[in-house]
Structures are given as C-alpha cells and as structure tokens.
Design a protein that fits this description.
The protein has 199 residues and is α/β, with parallel strands linked by helices. It is built from 9 helices and 4 strands. Strands 1-2-3-4 form a 4-stranded parallel sheet, with helices on both faces. Helix 2 crosses helix 3. The protein is globular, with a radius of gyration of 16 Å.
Length: 199
C-alpha cells in the first residue's frame, strides 16, 4: 500500500489551511503524518513494521523530521533534495526569505535580513531536522541535485555525513547536472529505481 498524505499547509485546501503551516513546520506537518499512519495501521491497512517514508524538498524536510522525531516508526527513508538544516540553508539558498517564514511564520517576512542574527540561526537550527539527528536509526537514501540553488546540496550532505558518522546506513546519490526538481529523465529514472530497491 502507498499512502500520499496532504498535510495541513498543502495546496488545494484553501488559504487558511495553507497559511497554517508557516512557523509550525516540523511539528504540525509531522503530527499530521504520524496521525495518518496511526489511522491506517489501526484500520489494518498497513503493517506497522513495514512503513517507509519518501519526500522531496519540503517533503524531504518532513521525511528527515519524521525519522528523527519518530525513530521507531520507519524501516527505510528516501529524501530528494531535503531541507535538513535551515541555519545552513539560509546563507546559501536562492530563497533565504523562505527560511524566515518557515521558522517564524508570516511575521518572518518582516524579520528577513541577508545577515541573520545568532538568535535567528539558533532558532533555524532548532526548527530543522538536524536538531533531531541523534535519535535517527532509519536507513536513508539521499538523492541530491548538485546544481540545486533552492536547497543547496550542502544541507543534505551535512545530514547524511552526520548519520553515517553515527552508524546509520546511508546511501547518497548526487546527480551532477540536476537542479532542485531532479527532473532530467535519466536522473528521475535512476532516482526512483534506487528508491524502489532501497532496503
């Protein structure tokens, strides 16, 4: 069974739902996914010992948050160009303002600066999946576009290297000519082929 979860804050559910996520990313969306998983398990539609998670971009942010906040829940994970460390991303992304909104909510627009304070960087880190890294046990596949300006490769590499250092099984595939979407046909094919064969 495959379950696709549209958390509160996803497109298609109106402006109020969309605006509910900024400032609560990494908590509201994580809880939505965990509640959905618990629901399908309670209905007998999914086996709790065979749950894997996959996401890209914000979905990768959510994937890496989930494996840190619910380390016993997932047997495998795959993250495509994941946001793993907002404190690192803010200085290297083509959308640094997003880091402020993701962390502070809509008031982040007013706080935005090209020179984040130590307080900003500390809060960015605390809202990032990397802040839960010590709890992660899930074998994880990272799929990274080397030309990604939105979520630069450094954030995924930093997270993957830290997992490897603590003994978590990690596989990293870098697509040298791909940007954020990993959309080149050969790369997309290789990406999903590796996701399908991950254990």
């Amino acid at each position: 069974m495959m379950m696709i979860i549209f958390v509160r804050g996803s497109l298609g559910f109106g402006e109020e739902a969309l605006q509910s996520l900024p400032g609560k990313a990494g908590s509201q969306d994580v809880n939505d996914v965990l509640n959905a998983i618990d629901h399908v398990v309670s209905l007998g539609l999914a086996c709790p010992s065979k749950i894997a998670v996959l996401g890209g971009s914000h979905g990768g942010f959510l994937t890496t948050h989930l494996i840190g906040q619910a380390p016993e829940k997932f047997v495998a994970a795959a993250a495509r160009n994941p946001v793993c460390n907002i404190a690192l991303m803010v200085g290297t992304s083509d959308i640094p303002d997003w880091c402020f909104v993701e962390t502070y909510g809509t008031k982040g627009r007013d706080r935005f600066t090209e020179a984040p304070s130590a307080e900003d960087l500390s809060l960015f880190y605390s809202k990032s999946p990397i802040s839960h890294l010590s709890k992660v046990k899930t074998p994880t596949l990272f799929l990274l576009g080397a030309q990604d300006l939105r979520v630069p490769i450094s954030t995924g590499l930093q997270y993957a290297r830290a997992l490897k250092e603590k003994g978590v099984p990690v596989k990293v595939i870098v697509f040298p000519n791909d940007t954020h979407g990993i959309e080149r046909p050969q790369s997309d094919f290789e990406s999903f082929l590796n996701i399908g064969s991950a254990d």
